[in-house]
Specification:
alpha/beta, 5 helices, 147 residues, 6-stranded mixed beta sheet
């Protein structure tokens, strides 16, 4: 056990977060997402499993330790529901509330089309798969800095 770190934080997620640098991105994906195929192309090549976590719960766990990046147009992105544009679903609204509270001044949360999400996630650092069952419950978080 370590002080100040949520006891539910798995060692492999803590390791990934520690190895990420400013500007690196991590994809938090739902149970339906092709996580292993995507992760194979990431920097770490790794899928971190978070069984029993919804996407908002996973995001809360991660952002308790990892700062979000306010120096880009969007420090966090959510996957758009096909045909819905930037109209958020319930899972997105729950996560956006967490991300907005954790976003440093000047930062923002945005959305990204599904196929563009897949392409961007493949260029990221790692993939975190939770057991979120709601469709399109996928997010990209960009690591910021601590001043």
């Amino acid at each position: 056990m370590l002080k100040g770190i949520d006891a539910r934080m798995p060692a492999d997620l803590l390791d990934v977060l520690m190895r990420m640098g400013h500007g690196d991105e991590i994809a938090v994906v739902d149970a339906n997402y092709p996580s292993h195929a995507t992760a194979a192309e990431t920097v770490s090549g790794q899928v971190v499993e978070l069984p029993g976590f919804s996407a908002p719960e996973a995001i809360s766990l991660i952002t308790a330790l990892m700062p979000l990046d306010p120096f880009v147009p969007e420090g966090a992105l959510w996957m758009q529901h096909d045909g819905e544009g930037d109209k958020p679903d319930e899972v997105h609204r729950e996560a956006i509330a967490i991300l907005t509270a954790e976003m440093p001044e000047g930062g923002a949360v945005g959305s990204i089309e599904r196929q563009a999400f897949y392409a961007r996630a493949r260029q990221g650092f790692a993939v975190v798969r939770c057991t979120e069952a709601r469709p399109f419950g996928c997010f990209i978080l960009r690591k910021g800095v601590i001043f």
